Amino acid sequence: ELDRLFSQSAKAIVVGDFNAKHAAWSVGRSNTNGSIIHDHIANNNLVLLAPLEPTHFPYHHPSSSTLDFGILKNISSGDATSINDLSSDHNPVAFEINVNVSLASPAKKVNITNWTIFCETIYNRVPGNPKTNNIADVDDCIRQFTCNITTAVNLATKSRVIAGPFRQLPSFIVDKIKLKNRFRKLYQQTFYPPYKRKAYKLQREIHEDIVNFDNNRWRETLVGWGLTLYLLTVLISTNHFKTL
């Protein structure tokens, strides 16, 4: 339902009684609706607008909660206030929203891990088989090993910001990538050689498909410019391309 509402406009405001509890906006335990809405907000770059005071005061239960709030799309400025003026178990909520302040687009980042550095870091940080004399030693070794893995990933990973839009690969290439990853995981779990051969074969096919896809897209761009690859080569070699 939220997808349907937010898909109708570049900017949108949805407010109401969502019957949803989550630690992000309400005291007490979360419920299923709260978890679903919280994840939807986090995954779609939306803004939660909830009052600091509770909005729901059950007659026969001592605990209060915040069930009434707002969700904003591409709007970053606003305020919500719970008003204790009615005899109802729900307080009305007053919203002040500046629709002229847009939410900045999130930066597109890709994390790239150098697995050679990762392996070297693990090799230097993990001494080998530790001595474990009791359960406490085992728990301590597990915590230390987990910490070493996390540290190695962080040291070997760099983030790169993508200025333009992500490249949209055709669905058949995406399906091949998923299938290749599935075979690679199966091989890592079973060490069954045919899985490894299948993963390598798909990797080669994926590389060829992506090269062909990029070349075809480049040819279509040249056709749109009214050029051929030969003419483009001539223009570049004679320094005429600067005048286009």
Automatic annotation (TrEMBL):
Top-rank taxon: Eukaryota
Entry keyword set: Nucleotidyltransferase, RNA-directed DNA polymerase, Transferase
A GO MF label: RNA-directed DNA polymerase activity
Coiled-coil regions, chain positions: none
Residue ranges occupied by any Endonuclease/exonuclease/phosphatase domain in the UniProt entry: 2-93
PANTHER family assigned to the protein according to its UniProt record, in alphabetical order: DOMAIN-CONTAINING PROTEIN, PUTATIVE-RELATED (PTHR33273), ENDONUCLEASE_EXONUCLEASE_PHOSPHATASE DOMAIN-CONTAINING PROTEIN (PTHR33273:SF2)
Name of the molecule in the record: Putative RNA-directed DNA polymerase from transposon X-element
